[in-house]
Amino acid sequence: MSLIEVKNLYHDYEGQGEYAVNDVSFAIKKGEIFGFLGPSGAGKSTVQNIMTGLLKLQQGQILFKGESVTDLKSKFFNQIGVSFEHPNLYSKLTGFENLKYYGGLFQVPTEDPQKLLEMVGLQGAMHKRASDYSKGMKQRLVFARALINNPEILFLDEPTSGLDPNLASTIKDIIRRKQEEGATIFLSTHNMYIADELCDRVAFINEGVIMALDTPRNLKLQHGQKSVQVEYQENGHVQAEVFSLEKEADRIRFNNLVNTKHLQTVHSQEATLEQTFIKVTGRGLS
Amino acid sequence: MNRIATLIKQDLLLSWRNGLVISTAVLLVIMGACIYLLPESFDVETAEFVYDASSDKAYETFLRQNGLSNANFVESEDELVAVLNDANQGFGVIYEGPVDDPRITLLTVGNLAEENINVALATLDYSAAVMQGKTLPDQYQIRLLRPPSEPVPVNLNFIPIAIVFEVVLLGFMFGAVMIFEEKQEGINRALRVSPMSTMDYIWSKNILFLAMGLIYGGVLIFLALQFRADYGRILLLIALTTSMMTFVGLGIAVFFNNISEWFFIGVGVLIVFNLPVISYALPTFMPGWITWIPSFPILFGVREILFPTGQTGFYLPLVVQLVIYNLIAFGFGYLAVDRKLMKAG
Ligand SMILES: Nc1ncnc2c1ncn2[C@@H]1O[C@H](COP(=O)(O)OP(=O)(O)O)[C@@H](O)[C@H]1O
Ligand SMILES: [Mg+2]
Fold first, then answer.
1. What does each C-alpha distance from A124 to A96, A112, A129, B13 come to in angstroms?
2. CA-based Rg of chain B, rounded to a whole angstrom?
3. Which one, A84, A232, B40, B77, has the greatest CB density within 10 A?
4. Is the CB of A44 under 6 A from ligand 1?
5. How far apart are CA A123 and CA A96, in angstroms?
6. Average pLDDT of the segment spanning B231-241
7. ipTM of this model?
8. Which atom of ligand 1 is nearest to the CA of A38?
9. Is the whole model's pTM more than 0.90, yes or no?
10. Mutate to test the interface with B, among A13, A21, A92 (most CBs of B within 10 A)
């Protein structure tokens, strides 16, 4: 049973027939982490903004537990948490105050702001004004704010962009923990590692169109090139070569090598998600 | 309710850190200081001197009977001129000749208004006639339609302006300031994905500014009149005015992104709302259109409540009028905020 269904979504910002989102359909199962992977400008934020009601639903359908989100209003907003690509905070309020007052808007039980701030590593800056926060700190505060109402669904737009690897991994851990607690997560990113490590299923999106949708593993297996990297000794030198297992000529040469040379190392090389993305869409992620 | 309470607390904290609370307090202190620093009246003492040059001093006798004392009489024309020159402002009378054919001369110094001189001449005519034993027909009479009102002390006369001006400014401008800050921070996107409604948003700001307006007005009136004011009626007017201006202010502000874009329209509206101050200061300037500005009846209503001249029956129609304005302003404010702030892509 899908928790959220998006059907034939289109979006045209200027009303001139240029679609930022073009016939996008997908369904998110309860409890999964569903990822949108695509380069900047692909339409990820546009889709998230339509789903959360920030952008008007022009054409298509969005169903939350079978009901159209346009009819849900405050009931829906009590159950979702949204983290924004560009941090938006009350700069004259402290981190703690930003969470406390935002929490006061919900009719469902809310989390302790202090606990959330500790979780994202902001305990030291809790009582500093948000205007004094660095970009990364703001990013984490916005992320923490998305968790304040213990949401059933989390919409996370580039949750780790601009964070150093340590902090990014803290955020990833929190996202996994939220999933274990039963939350469903919609995540947009242009970072293949995030998509690969976190997402149960990933949609490749480019120019407003979903080009592929599957588990990261299947995507890599179906579309990525399987290859083998081999190191062997020849004339006293170490030689290295990569063979694609999908090319006839490479396979024959690889077999020859196995039969005739002394191989030192053999590594099977799975394609990365980005390589897969390039194969599917014809362009890279950056 | 909980949501509105949260938003009010947050807006209060923000207006504190924005300086909006402080600037209101500073204005209150300045206005309060004016009450104590301005004189109660600018009246200059008008001196009156009489030189009765007649042989029997009949005029002097008559005036003494009517309450004038030694200090008012001089013994020669030169002395009269001398004492008048010493006074800032005043008039002197020279009385000559017999009772049945007197010659009376009026001397004046200073900025005596023409009305006062005419009154003086009429008084002289009248007193001469009475001395001749004539009884005057009751041609001139004064009937008081209302008991005479106390003149408003100079240092309190500006209080209605200080109240209406600040309350208009507070409602209209503070909401705009907060909206521009929120727009700059992009915070309304966060609010829009929360259960907060447009109603919550508008009412939290309205209630906060209303409270600020009431405290400002209440304190100022207390400084001016202590317990001599009808607080119930005046505070209701202040509340209705602040609320109306907040709705209008929010409704207009959402069409702009920052103070500079808003400036001409915003300041234009503020100027229009303060035009009735001219009529207040110069009662002769009262073109018909100015009475249509909503702050006009408010300003004069506030004055009538604080310094009654005995007008009755103006209050209820004024309240009804303001309630209607509030409904219209709310409709406009709600639609504008909902469409432009809470729904815009
Ligand atoms: N407010 C807007 N007005 C007009 N075009 C926009 C607006 N926001 C985004 N776009 C365009 O829509 C497309 C998708 O943008 P976006 O959804 O932000 O992509 P992503 O989040 O994947 O980077 C881009 O071509 C972008 O230029
Ligand atoms: Mg984006």
1. 11, 16, 12, 22
2. 30
3. A84
4. yes
5. 9
6. 96
7. 0.89
8. 22
9. no
10. A92
